[in-house]
Amino acid sequence: MKLKIALLPGDGIGPEVIQQAVKVLNAIAEKYTHTFEYSKGLVGDVAIKEFNNPLPEETLKICADADAILFGAIGDPKYDNNPNAEVRPEQGLLQLRKKLGLFANIRPVHTYTSLLHKSNLKEHVIDGADLVIYRELTGGIYFGERKLSDDKLSAVDTCNYSVEEIDRIAILAFEAAKLRRKKLTLVDKSNVLETSKLWRTRVAEISKQFPSVKLNFLYADNAAMQLILKPTQFDIILTENMIGDILSDEASVISGSIGLLASASIGKHTALFEPIHGSYPTAKGKNIANPLAAILSAAMLLDHFELYDEAENIRLAVEKSIDLNITTPDLNTTNHFSTTNVGNFISDFILDDDNTFYNK
Ligand code: IPM
Ligand code: MN
């Protein structure tokens, strides 16, 4: 298969982890005789520096011409102490999601046997946890009208959802649940918010088309607690934009590190694949960032084009690196490996046909 992949490495550790993901994709291309062509675009702080625009036209064009987008990370600490900055790196990612109509963000969370005992959570609590968060990505409070009053003494953010926005992601989430353990949990604040009430009504309505899927509802505060009390109770979690952002960082603790969580953002046009982590500025240039989330995002990209064996091969290699403790410091306090070491191991493992070397 021939695929045109737009690379948007972004800020901080983004370029380092994307470099490893590309290395792994190249190993897959060689092993399975595919052609992956890459084109690079600027986004975030690096684009602001060059064009004073976090999402330059040129980058959008590269994305529009591609079959898929692989995204690194975004954000820079210099904006954190300046909340009133008019132009921020994050706007690049938010605009990209909106412009490409990427309304569904899919974030799988599961455990790795050899990391169970290292978790901050008790092993028996997380053992067997395997869930997928379906986060709505182009609506809600992230994209509602916002305003600071003229006297700067009050501010407003609005949360909007239309039936169409709820239905399209709900259908995707139910379809996914049907192929998994057939349980869907809608997380909202319908005891308080009008938008949440609309979500409940619509999702209950749509569930009639999916009689094999068991639907239940949780308030977001309770869901945050249940996620770490008993994560095995979840299969598919469906939720709106901001709640999904918060719960997915929390859920990464179940896997062992936020450096492990990949995601796919799909919608009307070209799909985008990205780690859920941020730009980790203090690690930039140190070759210590975990590349696994970016590498696993590349695996989700391959799944999207039904290259299932290829994607599985990446996941197998990732598991092997974790089993052998060939991991970065976030997962490994002793004898840790660099970002490059981990990427090299995974691509070598993929290319070593019988995996003879590493199985010794
Ligand atoms: C994420 C990030 C983004 C979000 C930021 C960078 C705007 O935290 O993808 O989870 O809030 O959606
Ligand atoms: Mn986030």
From TrEMBL:
Its cofactor is Mg(2+); Mn(2+). GO terms for biological process: L-leucine biosynthetic process. GO terms for molecular function: 3-isopropylmalate dehydrogenase activity; metal ion binding. Keywords: Amino-acid biosynthesis, Branched-chain amino acid biosynthesis, Leucine biosynthesis, Magnesium, Manganese, Metal-binding, NAD, Oxidoreductase. Homodimer. Residues 4-346 form the Isopropylmalate dehydrogenase-like domain. Its EC number is 1.1.1.85. It is an enzyme of class 1 (oxidoreductase). GO terms for cellular component: cytosol. PANTHER family: 3-ISOPROPYLMALATE DEHYDROGENASE. This is 3-isopropylmalate dehydrogenase. Belongs to the isocitrate and isopropylmalate dehydrogenases family. LeuB type 1 subfamily. It comes from Lutibacter oricola. InterPro entries: IsoPropMal-DH-like_dom, Isopropylmalate_DH.
